[in-house]
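As a warm-up, study this chain.
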Amino acid sequence: MNLIHILAFHRVATAGSYAAAARLGGISQPTLSAQVRALERSTGTALFDRVGRGIRLTAHGRQLLEATEKLSVAIDQVSACLVGDVMAHGGRLRISADSAVHVLPVLAAMKIATHRLEFAIRIDNSTEVTARVLAEEADIGLTARPSSDPRLFSEKLRDDRLVLLVGAADHLARRKSVRLDAIRGRDLVMREKGSMTREVAQKQMAGAGVKPRQVFDVETREAVREAVAAGFGVGLVFASEAGRDTRLRTIPIRDADVRVAEYAICLATRRSVGLVSRFFLTAHKLARAGGWLRNTEHP
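Now compare it with the structure written out below.
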């Protein structure tokens, strides 16, 4: 029995994909794939079925996952021991995020472990988030823009979509969904240039030949909501950030590929350090428990 191969299987099974497991474990995806294949050869049983671009546990794989859950608990205890002293004595995290919505649940879960956790959150657009992490002005970044920069460690936390935000009295408010063309000739409220929201929305509107009458630029998604509620026009936001506001209605856009995601990033050299390590561990557990990630990938 090779413990490394068993741990590789557990990482992939719990992460939902080889790519996500490789990012979380800090190893290459080919290495992880080779370890799982070696385990399958040694047992003579397939542990995963390849379904389209995704993976799915076989019956034997599900049985093995149940057995390795105890192993996972032991590993978490070891991890907690290694960073426990940092958590017990508290510390301070500097966070740059494109929205507070994604980061606050993670910080709230971390706070349970210590009463002396301190943090500072700065709201920036996706471009600025990456720049602040690289400049060491932020320990953690939350951004909708994926990065292939080798200096950064990146982990996807949530799959999301852009939706249309309208006032409760708007004629679209009763619709279950709309086409992108509903924006044509309307005043539109969006995040400023440099934000992923703006980039995705402009690409989709250009492809569909849809032009709003006037575009109002604001710096935060909270400002988008307030501007729409005040009657400046319709807005575009991430579904997870639309919030619950009786003044507003959130409407899916059915004819545009407006899928987006949210990533946590840090300097690769700091991935395993103190509170940064604890942030990623906590965020990963919340993403799994909350069903934030819906897509799986093939190796």
